[in-house]
Structures are given as C-alpha cells and as structure tokens.
Design brief:
heterotetramer; A: 297 residues; alpha/beta; eight-stranded mixed beta sheet; B: 576 residues; Pyruvate-ferredoxin Oxidoreductase, domain 3; 4 domains; seven-stranded mixed beta sheet; 19% strand; binds thiamine diphosphate; binds iron/sulfur cluster; binds magnesium ion
C-alpha cells in the first residue's frame, strides 16, 4: 500500500452526486473521501458497500470498488466481502431505514460479531428515496406520508443496541460538523473491529423537522459537552454511561464517541480457516478430496 | 441378490447409529449400500426407522420389503412387520416388544433379545444398540469380524476399554441370535466402498472445484452440508459461517463471491423463500454463487423431515423480473459430486446464481459410490481481467452474455456492482437516465445480454438422453431417477417395456431436443409433487401433454413398488 | 377527438403538480382523462414528465403524440419535441429553454414564457407552475374559469390570499400565450369525473368490501396505497401500519386475518420476494389475506420507477411446496376497485392468500372512471362457526376444500393454526405421526382438500371472453389490455382485424375454456416481460404455442403505436 | 371474563408435550398455564403465538387459541393479532434462535413499539429442533455441530437490546426456579405494554454445557442478589443499571426484573383507528366509499 500519496480528488468519481442540493449526505461522502485519502488507503484496496436509499447511492460517487446491494442487506454482503478477502478495507454506507428497519437483525448481529469493518449510517430520520415516510429513527409525533396523524413509535436507538451487542467502536457524527465527522470516520476506519458511525445527515427535502438548524440546536458533543449542560465529558471506555447517554437528556441528543474498546480479537482473526492463513479469493484452486472420501469408508 | 435390513424404534433410541454400524459393515465389505434414515420432526419419542439395502450390484432405491427387521420398540413391529419378506427374520427387544398379536409372514424367524439388560451387565446401557447389531448381523449372515472392523474404526479413538466393551456387546448379540439360521452369507465382495449422503457429495464436489466460502443457517435437510463443512472446512481452505438467517446467508455468499471467492450456500424451501430477493440481485449484479436447495415436504414448515420435489416453481420464480439462473438436479451422491463441481464452475464462469436441487431423500441417504469421483484438474475462472488494457467495461455487451470482470483489489479496474439497471460501465440508468431515448436501448441491451448467458451455457451442456429401447417414456428428475430405473427393470421382467428420460439440467433447458424426443410419444411424469410441477414445466417448455403421471406427496420416498403399482393401471388405460 | 398535453422538467420542478392541475381541470369538465407521471429513481434533477390525454370517449392509453408540450427545462424540448404533432404547440420557459436548435413539426406554434420571473413578481417563485398552467390552458383551449375551479378546490383551505395569488399567476400565463390560437376548445362535456390511480382503486374496493387492516413497508409503486390508507383509514375503520420490513408486513397481516380482520398488504417485487415464505404459511394454515403486488422494472432494484409485468412467475412460485393461491390482474382503476372487492372477499371466504397484480403504470396513473363504482351490499364471511355444535374440526375435509373456522374469542372453538402439516383437528402430524400409515392418508387428504379450493373458486369465476369478431387473437393481462384495445381499433381502421383475450384471473385458471378458445387459432401474446412470462404460462396451461409476441421491457408503458408498429411485421410474416 | 374460575387443568390440552423428558420447556408451559389460570383469563380470550423450534411447539400443549407460525416471525404475527382484536390476551412463545437470530429485527422493533403483549423466549443457548447448532446466545467457545472448533461470537444480549429499544417490562426467568418464573410470567401478562421474559430453559439433549446445574451455579437474582456477591438489589426502575447488569459480572449472569416502566401508552392506545373505538374483527362490514370517490373529483 506504499503507493503514491492519495488526495481527496483520487476518491471522487466521475459520477456527479444525484442528491438534492444541500442534502446532508454530501458531507458524509466528503468525510469518507478525506479519511481514506488521509489514511492513504488505495481505492482498489477498498470496497464500499451500500444498501438502497438516497444515502446508498454513495458508492457511485467514489472511486473504490463498490457494491450497491439491496435494501437492508449491506452488512451481510460486507461481511462476506471481508471474510473472503481480509486484505480489503471494507466500508458499509447506508440509510437509517436501510440499516435500522429492514436491516435491524443484521445490524444487531454485526455488532456482536466484530468483523473488521466500518459502518456509516446516514441517519436523516426519514425515508428519503421513497419520498418521505416514517423511518425507525423518526421522532414521536412526526407527521409523514405514512403517519399523517403523527408517528406513535419511539425512535430506534442504534447506539444503545450497538452497545448492548458489544460493538467495539460506537459513535455518532453530524454532517453539519465536518471536521468532527472526518476525524470520526478516520478513527472508525483505523479501529480494528466493527465500528459504527451513525451520522445525523439531514434530508432537506422530506424532513422539515430535523433540519441542519434543528440538529445544531439539539445535539451536543458527549465527549466535550457544553458548559451549560453541566455534565462530565464522556469517557469512551465507559459503556454503561455510553448507554445512558444514548437516550436524549435535557431535551438534547448526544454525538461523539460513545464507546471504544481496543484489543478485542476480530471475527476474522478467530475464524479457523482464515486463522490458518487462507485467503478465500487468492486460494481458489482445485482441491484433492480423496482423503475426505477415504474417511467415509 | 439384495438384502434389506430395517431398524426401528423411537427417537432417542439410537436407531440411526445402530443402522449406521450395519450399513458401514457392508460398505467396508465392498457391497453397494443404500442407507435411508426415516425420522420425524421431534427429538425424542417419535417413530424412527433406518433402512439398509445392500447388494453386489448398485442399489437404486430403498426397496419394497424387509429381510431382517430389528424392533427396538413395539410400534416398529406394528408398522413394519407387514413388510417382512417370507423367510425373513424379526429381531425384537423382548423387554419392550410383544409380538403375540403381530402377524409375521410365512417362515419368518423371530429372535427375542434383551439387549438393554445385557448392555447394563456389560457396563453401560448405551451398549444395547451394539448388542442388537450383533443379533441382526448374525441373522443377516455377517461375520463378527466385519462388524468389529467398524467398531474399531468408529470407537478406536475412545480407547481400548471402550472398544472391548463394544466387542463384548456385539458377541452377546450374536449369541442371542445363534439359534436361527442366517438368511444368507455376506462376506467380502470387493474393496471398501465410501458411503456418502447426497449432501456430502455436493460439498465434496464444490470443494474439488475450489470452493472457499460456505454460509448457511441450519435447516433440514440441508444442515448436514453445514455440519460437514464446519468440520472439514478449516483444513480444506473453506471459510464456513452460520449466519443469523438465510437472508444473511445468501447476502454474505454474494459478498464473498463478488470479492472473488468461490462461494456456496445451502438451505431448504423456507430459507430459499427468504433468499429469493438476493438471488435476483446476484442475477442483476452478475455475481456467481451456488445455492443448494434441499427440498422437503411443504408447503411452509410442512413435513420438515420428509421428502418432496415441489420447490421447482419456487426456484424458477425466485425474485422479481427476468434474469438468468441455472438449475441442476443430481440423482445420487456420485452425481451430486459432479453437480457440485459443475455448479461451482458455472456460477463463477457465467457470473450468475446456480441452483443445485436436492431433496430430503437424496441429501440424507447414504449411498455407496459405484465409480471413482473424478478429480478437478484446473480451475477456469472465466472472463477475469487482471490488468487494465484499454477501456474496462464491467458490463460490456458480449455475444456470450458474459462480460469481463475484475477481482476487487486489482488496481485500475474498480467498478460498482449495482442492483439497479446500469450501463456497460456500471453507471446506473435508474436515477437520472431512465426513460431517456438512449437509456431505453441500454436497458434492452443489458437485459438481452444477461439472458444470452443461458444460450451460451446450453451449448456446453449435453442434451438429455433417453434410456431404453422401446415403450412409453417415463420422465423424472433428481433422486427419483434411480428409483424409476429399478422400477422399469421390474416392469420389463413383467413384460412392460419402457424408456426413461431424466431431466438433469432444468435451466437452461434443452427445449428443442426434449421436444423432439417427446413429440408424438406417449410419456408419463413421475415426481414427488401433488400439483405436478415437473409435468407443468415440461408442458411449458414443449407444449406437450403427458399421457399420465405418478405422483407421490405423502413424504415417503418413491420405491420401485410404488411406481409399478401406480403405473400399471395407467398403462392399461392406454392399452384399453 | 383526443388531446394530449405533456409537461416536462427536472425532478423538483413541480412537473407532477403542474400536470395534476391541468388533468383535474379536464376531469372536472367531464372529460375522460389518463394522467401518467413518468419519473426516475432520484429526488431532484432527474428528467420527469407528466402526460395528460383527454377525450370525450374513454381514454385507453397515454397515446403516441403530443398536442401541447410544456418544457420547463431544455432537456424536455430535446426529448419530447419530436413527438409534437403537426399544428401542436410548444410552451417553453424562456429563461431555461433554447429552442433554436430543436426541430419543431410543421405548423407547430411556440410560446416562450418567463414564468419564473412573473411568479416572483407576483410574490413567490412557487407560482411559476401556475403561470405555466395558464399558458398551456390557453393553448389547449381551456376556459380560465375551469382552471380556477381546480385552484380553488386545491388551495381553498390555504386562504383567500393564496388563491388570489394563484389566480394572478394563472392570468399571467394566459396572457403569455394570448398570441397563439388554441388548438381547439374544451368546455364542459358532462358532470365532474373522479380521477383515480389504480392503487387508490384497489384500496377503495378493499374498503368497500370491509377491509379493516392494512400493513405495508414503503416501496414504489405500491407506496401510494399506504399513503392513501394512512390518510383515510382512521375515519374508515382501517388500522394502517408501516412495519419494519415486508416480512413483518405480511406476518402482521396474517395475524390480523387469522384473528378475524379483513386484511391486506401491499408491496412490489423485492418486498414480495421477502413475503413468499409467509404466503406459503398462510396457504398451509389457511389464513385468507390479500397481497397487492405492484410490479416494476426488474430484476432486483432494476428500474424502480418504471413499469413491467415480469413478476408472474414470482407470484406463481411464491413459497415452497404446493398450495392454493389466487391471482387476479385488473386492467384499469375501475377494474382495480372490483378486483379489490373480489380479492378481499375471496381471501376471507376461501381462507387463502390472494394476489392482486398491478404494475407501475396502472398503480400510479390517474384515470377517470367511465362507470359508477358498484357498492358492496353485504359481507359473506364464509364458513365461520359461531357456536360449538358437535365436533369442531378446523381443518375438516370437505368437498369444496373450505373448512369451517372459528374467530378467536369464540368460546369452545379453540384450535392451533400451524405451518406444519396437521390433521382435521389441527393436531400436527409432522412430529410424532409423520410417515406412519394413517398419517400418510391424513397428509394426502389435507393436500388434496386445500387444492380443491381452486376448483371450487373457479366455478364462481366467469370464463374470459374473446372480444372482436375475426382475426388473430391478441392476449394480454393487466394494464396492457386497454392499450391493446386501442391498438386493435387503430389496426382495424387500417384493415387488420384482430380479436383480444384478457386473462384477468391467472389463478385459478379457466384452462379448458382458454384451451378451447385458442386451439387451432393464431394467437399472439402482448406483455411487458422480456422472457415472455405470460406466454410461457399460457403454454403451460394449454400446451399451445403462440404464433408470436410483442414484448416491451424498456420500462415505458405500452402505447397503441408501439403495439401496432411491432405487430405489423408479425402479421405480415404470417400472411407471407 | 367473569366466567368460572380457571384451574391449571383448564389450560392443559390433550396433546402430550413432545419435548424430551427433562427439557426446560416443561417448566415454561407450566408457568404460563398457572399464570393464566391465576389471572382467570379464559382460553378462548387468549392467543398463544409461536415460531418454529422445540420451544415453539408450546401452543399445542395448551387450550387457548394459538398459531404455530414460521421461524422467527411470531412477533409480527402476534402484533397483527393484537391490533386486529385488542380484546385478546396475546402471548408470544419461542426459542432463542427463533427470536434473537432470524427474528432479531422484529424483536428490536417490537420492543420499541409497546404493543400490549407478553413475549416469552425459551432460551436454551442452542438450536434444539435442528439438533444442536450454535444459537445467538451460545457462549464463546461452545462447540456445536456448526462450530466444531468452538463458537467465536459473543452472545446476543436480549436484555440489553430490549432496554435500548425502550421495552417497558424486561425480565429473565429460569425454568429451574418455577415459583419465581410463575410470578414473573404473571406480572408480565399483567403489565400494560410489551413485556419480555427471557427464560433460561435448558436443552437436556443438545446443550451439555448450559445445564440445569450450570445455571443454578451461574445465575443470580438481580433483585435479590446473594450476599456473597456484595451488590445492591436491583431496582427495576433504574434502566441504566439494568443495562449494566445485562452483561455477566463476577462470572455470574443475572435474572429477575431488569426494568419495569408503567404508565406509558401502548401502541394500541395510540393508533388513531383503534383509538376511535374500532375493533377490526367485529367491525368488518361493507363500507360506503362514495364520499372518498367524491373527494377525488
Ligand atoms: C425490499 C425492499 N423494500 C422496500 C424498498 C423501497 N425502498 C427503497 S429506499 C427505502 C428507504 C429509504 O430510506 P433510508 O434507508 O433511510 O435511506 P434514505 O433514502 O433516507 O437515505 C425503501 C423503503 C426496497 N428497495 N426494497
Ligand atoms: C426459515 C427457516 N430457517 C430454518 C429453519 C429450521 N429451524 C427450525 S427450528 C430452528 C432453530 C431452533 O432453535 P430455537 O429457536 O432456539 O428453538 P429450540 O428448538 O432451541 O427451542 C431452525 C433453524 C426453519 N424452520 N425455517
Ligand atoms: S431526498 Fe433527502 S436524503 Fe434524498 S437526496 Fe434529497 S435531501 Fe438527501
Ligand atoms: S432437544 Fe432440547 S430443547 Fe428440544 S425438546 Fe429436547 S431438551 Fe428440549
Ligand atoms: Mg433515511
Ligand atoms: Mg434454542
């Protein structure tokens, strides 16, 4: 990987993003491009895997290898990619509906499995591509096309689930705070193990409630809380407090690093086949099964 | 000359392990063996039986009678005694079975054993099965040495003491049975034979062809592929993963295949249903993977431990829209090995999903191989591009339908594999291009290109051939074929000549060849589906109406007798 | 005499809302209207157009030409100008469109407007669309009063000021266009007509038939059923629930149906794939529910906002094993209403899953109704038992295939609905009975009983009828039928007489009737599937080969011109 | 419901349980039967909904209405039942594989949705019916048919997920402590809202690790911790501590009530249609849609 130093430009593809002007996802793709460039991870050594949704169009706007899969399934696909070729840097990118509604089962299991990959969720608290229905992270009372009388379900708590399931890096960013987000994504990619980065990434077209402005007023950095909140900065090694902070407090919602645990073996490090040094991509070759047949005599 | 042994008892009685010792004794003597394990969807208490048919000739079915029946419980006597052949032997555990009101056939001998008691005396109630094995082995004319050989192979690792106790139990069994005459003698007839269930056959074939990734979620009757590969995978370069569900399974497999592994997954009907969306994705993104679907009694949970062949339409209709997929249905474990190789190679070379259709009967029935398993000499990964030379168009329109692909990790050949429609360069046309005049053509060209894969593949595949010289044509697929073959042989003896056609490749289908074969002929379809899925499929392909059919859907495997009995009136109808 | 208006621009330009005002102006004047919204899978920036065809006669397709084209952006001019008819009018936003290198047809008038600027002057850039509406309305010969009527209906609630500004914008538009002659005059021709998309038609039918539960997960082109029912459900007794995924959707619907609600769910191909396992469960447990499947361009995510009819095999092959399910494909919104009623009733009475097949074109295209929607007078819930009298056997073997059922909450009639095979009394046979001689019969009887539902239902359903007197038979299903009808009328004018057969009920299928109709006839299949799914299905059912076909799979709806153009060479072939 | 007083016998069906002798699930069905009898909830007013697995055979052994659905789907089915007829008492019963593997997505969403029902999971940390593969709750290192070299995934944490998702009653029982279990199940049924009862219910046939004996040595009652552990009794209103206790501590695993929140509106109470007094079962009737059509003119 000691190839030429990368710049952000090397990560930008010829396909012009199709997002609405002002969409929060622009900030996310930029953060990811910047992080990869800074880490000098070559596009051909990277696989960006997405689901379906506005946010899931992201891989097309970057130069790495990528898959734009089906709704809710990026995590198992990404896991398959990583286990097949542990040399690749694997990044999952999708939406809140994709990851927390239809993908919720895979999400919980990916968190406990600790496959070495980064999962970035562009959480706009709405279904963008399908033109504005309730998402699992929509707030109570939110009126949408599917809940014209107001949403009656409390929001899905991805940070809490990730903590419960033992994910080793659990964080939240905001696409309106690009510096913080870029650093966060970089740290997530560097993290050995499964890293969740939930990003508040406003949908300027269908979510008139959770706007950039609203987020700016509502969210606070848990690791550097504002003075007026009068709470201690959060230490990412404290999972129990991370959990407590995953719920809104004083009407405010936290972002930052909720939990980080280093040193835990990844799934790939423990898999007996991979552990034996096999690379399932490079080691595709005819196999002599005679001894196996012999054992069945 | 064939011999049929059946062991019956309740779940938890160790029926299968008892049967397996006997089956293995025969296969190690060089006999051909078919060992069918019949059980229910319950862990303890249900009725279980294990059927072992052996012969010096290849064995094609479980048969229609019993020569030696071992009754571990009373229900076994009630249910199976009617099948005991004249001159057969019934061995029964006297503490549990009362034969007084069971009608045994003429000349059948009856051996009461008290295996449990004897086992306890020897030192462990677990040895009761081995006592019973001894009694059956005597009745069937097996030398004690040949059974000891199996015990040594099976328990050797557990220490000499263990083996010794087993030997004692075995001897005790022989002693119990000593008063009856063995029905015949079974000695060595050739070198040891491997005894392989269909599932293991598929797994071995896939491994031979370079499989490196297998994912599954447990589901009878596909689970044993998972168990087997979990065992042998690490030493044979296969990453094996049980996922959280079948959706996770198929998507992880697609991820691995796209990354460049040779990847397979396995399930049964309910799991397949969950996989269908992603299979369509693989069709669109042109990712090659193998999906083993081992069919069982449906619909829904149905009869989870019984056999059926009624997922044909589910496989054909998997996922929305039109896209190419292949489907091969092997007929026995040897063929399953071949299908494992073919499917693995074709999936990779044609970059599309390939189904291997099995069923409960084929997947779990251990059968000996009558031929060596041919090795795979080299791997052809198809249109893989390793270095950029000129433009790289991942979804290039080609005559064969197969486009060049790159393996992630290769410099300068990056592309995005999408589930949306896209152009040659992998750029979506669904978002800002769909419907524009140029894109209409892009769309049509991509659809047609993908469809051409099946035309190209068809040219590689041999057309099915008719077996037999004269008479009506009996058509089947999968595991029914060998049973049908035996049935035809029996009918021929009774003067009814028939021919046979086995549809091994369902997709792509040799439509022209098959239509030509069947045009103007009398033909029947023999299948394990109540609605006649294969018959419908044949009509769809050829426009031809079957003269009649034999269908079985009570969950039991076909037997030659079932086929001949149900076929006889049909032929008469035609003659009349 | 028909008139066709097309409005084009980029996503976010308000193309659809512009078109809707115009469409509604016509329907409220009593015209028949077909209003098709063509868009792409992107929220902003893609190319969008809205086609409005109006006539005093029923409108059967979007047509093949444009009389008045409104270009909100330049791409619209490039793409659509070639379709403008001689003597047509092109209205364009002068600040964005440059017509200098666009070839307009002979005698076409060209009106440049500066709607944006004018709108800003009036007070809001959002009014630009209304300015454009004014210009188009003038060109198409609509009285300003008729458009004001729509504006009042649409914006009345937002206050007088708002309405007044809109009127100003409208007048400005008329003013822009005043120099050209309207292509013709459109005044009142009858009472107001309702303008209803197919999805709303299905929803209304289901509600008329007593629907009380609807679940869905958003998916184009089924989402608008969810939006509509979420809006009107609470006032009309329907519980409406967006679930976490389509698996949750179908299972919640099954739960509601089993509990005794009339329950429906809706999705498109990808969601349907995920539902298939549970649909088989409903088949086995005999729970009646309606599944609306609105098809779109596949495979996989494919062309999510384009039309196709290629989920036929997916619906037929849904789930493992053999079980009965029904499938009806309505052809227009009025028929969708009827199908909504029929499906809801049949699901409940026959205790089985019923598909309503729609497609993007039918689901989202607003069409006027040419007949009143017939009300539902009474609800027949079928074989519901309300009080215990003698033995209650939930899965009783009956001649009709329908067994008595109880509604949970009813004393003394408790039972367990299982996905495993079971006997008449709902006791499982999969666990400790499977394979035992008695259970083999139980199994067969239950399979046969379930299958008989389709025979019974078939007797209720009218056989399809051939329209037309002479000539080859053109077969289609669903939304293609009306378009084909118009195409046939055009061909008849050119001297090519044809007949038409519409397959409305796909399952159960009037096999005998259809076979009789087609035997010995020349017939063609017109469908939106590249592989020819309907053609394959017809062959499977009848054994008959189509003479040829017209298929469309670029995502655009059929038009009469598409059909006649592609059909012409086929007829010539036959003649030659 | 003022019908005759129920006894446990009224809840026992003619179908003899098909579980292996000694299976933990016997204790669970008995606890449920006892709770329903004590609460005098008539069998015909009760719906017991299960998935697929040994544990999911449970409804057959009881007299109420029931559905034995498909693997992993009992929660959405049960929700459909409850929303269709809010008069029914709805109980979900399934296994750990059913609920936490294939059913994990529905599980997380059911927890936040607060439908008024009870969900009892017979958690044996193994797949019973499919003869002994790893389940999501199997411990690390557990050797099973699918992990002959030992399971390499940390166990799924149902208590933690339920807490993260805002479930209003979150508890764990043990079928080897029948008195506690019966009381727990009763309390769960009485709870208004979604109640999770995860029950350690040993598989005596395929799980030789997590046996009755093992559980007895390993688990402790969080609400009444043993003296030697030297920890405070857990107060079920303290969600953050409930979360901390959902992870093993001092090599021991907690059971008891982790969280209870009363007074929160149920889903059914908030649904606009049900709120208007509609019963979707009893109110099936022809509907006049003319006004709706009129609105489309
Ligand atoms: C199986 C399936 N169900 C539904 C859809 C339709 N669909 C496409 S994107 C989407 C949700 C989009 O929301 P989110 O994941 O939050 O992404 P966003 O567009 O907000 O970025 C849905 C429901 C689908 N493609 N596949
Ligand atoms: C879709 C699907 N996949 C797989 C199966 C096979 N299957 C039946 S039960 C079961 C798991 C049983 O484990 P659990 O849910 O823990 O229940 P237990 O038997 O341990 O009580 C599985 C995987 C199935 N029936 N359906
Ligand atoms: S609809 Fe929302 S999420 Fe989608 S691109 Fe536009 S702003 Fe972004
Ligand atoms: S296998 Fe295990 S879970 Fe299943 S019945 Fe037996 S003991 Fe219980
Ligand atoms: Mg979103
Ligand atoms: Mg379990």
């Amino acid at each position: 990987m000691a190839e030429t130093e990368l710049t952000v430009k090397d990560l930008i593809s010829d396909t012009k993003p199709t997002w609405c002007p002002g969409c929060g996802d622009f900030g996310v793709v930029r953060a990811l491009q910047t992080a990869l460039a800074e880490l000098n991870i070559q596009p051909h050594d990277t696989a960006v895997i997405s689901g379906i949704g506005c946010s899931s169009n992201l891989p097309h706007f970057m130069t790495p290898y990528g898959m734009h899969t089906i709704h809710g399934r990026l995590l198992p696909v990404a896991m398959g990619v990583k286990l097949a070729n542990p040399e690749l840097t694997v990044i999952g990118t999708g939406g809140d509906g994709d990851g927390y509604a239809i993908g919720a089962g895979h999400f919980a299991h990916a968190c406990r499995r600790n496959v070495d990959m980064t999962y970035i969720v562009m959480n706009n608290q709405i279904y963008g591509l399908t033109t504005g229905q309730t998402s699992p992270t929509s707030g109570e009372g939110h009126t949408t096309k599917s809940t014209p009388g107001g949403n009656i379900e409390p929001p899905f708590n991805p940070i809490g689930v990730a903590l419960a399931e033992g994910a080793t890096f659990v964080a939240r960013g905001f696409s309106g705070d690009p510096k913080h987000l870029q650093a966060l994504v970089k740290r997530a990619i560097q993290h050995k193990g499964f890293a969740l980065v939930d990003v508040f990434s406003p949908c300027v077209t269908f979510n008139k409630l959770n706007t950039f402005k609203w987020y700016k007023q509502t969210i606070y950095n848990v690791n550097e809380p504002p003075k007026d909140m009068d709470i201690e900065p959060h230490d990412p090694s404290d999972r129990a407090r991370g959990f407590a902070l995953s719920f809104p407090g004083q009407d405010r919602i936290g972002y930052g690093v909720f939990y980080e645990e280093t040193g835990k073996l990844t799934y790939g490090e423990q898999d007996p086949t991979l552990h034996a040094g096999v690379n399932p991509v490079h080691d595709v070759k005819p196999r002599d099964v005679r001894a196996l047949v012999e054992a069945m005599k | 000359m064939d011999t049929i042994i059946r062991v019956g008892g309740s779940a938890g009685d160790g029926v299968a392990s008892t049967g397996q010792i006997l089956a293995r004794a025969f296969s190690r003597l060089g006999y051909h063996v078919n060992a069918y394990n019949s059980y229910q969807s319950v862990i303890r208490g249900g009725h279980v039986w294990y059927n072992i048919r052996v012969s010096e000739e290849p064995v094609e079915s479980i048969g229609d009678r019993i020569d030696v029946l071992l009754c571990i419980d009373h229900q076994t006597a009630e249910v199976h005694a009617p099948l005991v052949a004249e001159g057969g032997v019934v061995v029964h555990e006297a503490s549990k079975v009362d034969l007084s009101d069971i009608k045994l056939p003429k000349g059948a001998a009856d051996i009461g054993i008290t295996a449990l008691e004897a086992a306890k005396e020897i030192g462990s109630p677990l040895l009761a099965n081995v006592v019973a094995v001894g009694a059956v082995a005597h009745a069937v004319g097996l030398d004690p040495e040949s059974v000891r050989d199996v015990i040594q192979a099976q328990f050797g690792r557990k220490g000499e003491k263990m083996v010794e106790m087993n030997y004692q139990a075995l001897d005790k069994g022989y002693e119990f049975a000593s008063q009856v005459e063995p029905i015949r003698k079974h000695g060595r007839v050739g070198p040891q034979r491997a005894l392989i269930p269909g599932n293991e056959g598929i797994a071995l074939g896939a491994m031979a062809a370079g499989l490196t990734f297998y994912a599954a979620y447990p589901m009878t009757p596909a689970s044993t592929i998972l168990h087997y590969l979990a065992q042998v995978g690490p030493d044979n370069g296969v990453v094996v993963k049980q996922m959280e569900d079948e959706i996770g399974v198929v998507n992880a497999t697609i991820g691995a295949a796209w990354a460049g592994a040779r990847a397979m997954c396995g399930t049964s009907g309910g799991g397949l249903a969950l996989m269908t969306e992603a299979i369509g994705f693989a069709g669109m993104a042109e990712v090659g993977l193998v999906i083993v679907n081992s069919m069982r009694g449906g619909p829904s949970t149905g009869l989870p431990t019984k056999t059926e062949q009624a997922d044909l339409w589910q496989m054909l209709g998997a996922g929305q829209g039109d896209y190419p997929k292949a489907l091969v249905a092997p007929q026995d474990p040897h063929d399953a090995y071949l299908a494992g190789i073919e499917a693995t190679e074709i999936a990779d070379r044609y970059q599309m999903p390939v189904f291997v259709a099995s069923d409960f009967y084929l997947s779990e029935t251990s059968m000996t191989l009558d031929k060596e398993l041919p090795p795979v000499d080299a791997i052809d990964r198809g249109a893989v591009v390793e270095k950029k030379e000129g433009d790289f168009l991942r979804y290039k329109i080609t005559d064969t339908g197969v486009s060049p692909r790159s393996i992630p990790g290769t410099p300068e050949l990056m592309f995005i594999a999408a589930s949306d429609e896209h152009d040659e360069d992998a750029t979506l046309i669904s978002d800002v291009l769909a419907g524009l005049p140029n894109s209409l053509k892009v769309r049509i060209d991509q659809v047609d290109k993908r469809a051409r894969k099946l035309d190209t593949l068809l040219k590689e595949l041999p057309a099915p051939e008719i077996e037999g010289e004269t008479g009506p044509i009996l058509i089947s697929w999968g595991s029914t074929a060998p049973i049908l073959r035996e049935a035809r042989r029996q009918m021929a003896k009774d003067g009814v000549e028939t021919r046979q056609l086995t549809l091994r490749w369902i997709l792509p289908f040799h439509t022209d060849a098959v239509r030509e074969m069947l045009e103007g002929e009398t033909f029947y379809v023999i299948e394990a589906s109540s609605s006649g899925q294969l018959e419908d499929y044949i009509r769809m392909r050829t426009g031809l109406w079957a003269t009649g059919n034999v269908r079985r859907y009570d969950g039991e495997p076909f037997t030659p007798g079932y086929i001949t009995t149900h076929f006889a009136p049909l032929v008469q109808e035609v003659v009349a």
